[in-house]
Amino acid sequence: MHLRTLIFLIITIVVIGCKGDKTKKVEPEKNKIATEKVATSTYEDLEGNPIELSDYKGKRVLMNYWATWCRPCIEEMPDMEKAQAILTDDNYVFLFASDQSVEKINKFKASRGFQLDFIKFNGVYAEENVSALPATFIYNEAGEQVARFDGGLKWDSPEMIEKLRAIQ
């Protein structure tokens, strides 16, 4: 007898539950866009200011894609610091873009002490044709990509400095 009562109660609850109006009225959230941080630029500096490659028109840009967990990325950074110093008078800007959080990049920068221009990459590596890190792109003064280097390299070697100076 208890089983019949239990089954009757379950069926009654299901029937009553199905009768209710299932449509939910959702009020649009006012000013939702204003309250959310939407990344509109491809890059941003560590203070959250938007950056685009076009901001560097008239300069040669070395864009290095890296990550805090990437050992070859970290190993080549001292050489990149040296190359950056050597190429100061050659109209080069060195940028180091990571898709990791600004907080993680700042923590890395503070702990390692590199004097490099770290920026946040807001895009997807695959869209930049990057499948492994580090990947370094060279852009000429017109903003056109003119060279690409994959993997960790000896950036301050005389051969590499000569190569970078020769890129137009």
How would you describe the overall organization of this protein?
By secondary structure, the protein is α/β, with parallel strands linked by helices. It has a single domain (38-166), classed as Glutaredoxin. The chain is 35% helix and 19% strand. It has a seven-stranded mixed beta sheet, covered by helices on one side. Residues 20-39 have low confidence and may be disordered.
Describe what is shown at a glance.
With 168 residues, this protein is an alpha/beta fold. The protein contains five helices and seven strands; from the N terminus they run ααβββαβαβββα. The longest helix is centred in the first third of the chain and has 18 residues, at 2-19.
CATH superfamily: Glutaredoxin
CATH architecture: 3-Layer(aba) Sandwich
Largest sheet: 7 strands, mixed
Quick check: average pLDDT?
A: 85
Order of helices and strands: HHEEEHEHEEEH
Low-confidence stretches: 20-39
- The CATH class designation is Alpha Beta
Rg for CA atoms: 27 Å
How many β-strand runs? 7
Strand order of the largest sheet: 2-1-5-4-3-6-7
Secondary-structure topology with pairs:
Layout: H1 2-19, H2 32-35, E1 43-44, E2 50-51, E3 60-65, H3 71-86, E4 92-98, H4 102-112, E5 118-121, E6 135-139, E7 145-150, H5 158-166
Parallel strand pairs: 3-4, 4-5
Antiparallel strand pairs: 1-2, 1-5, 3-6, 6-7
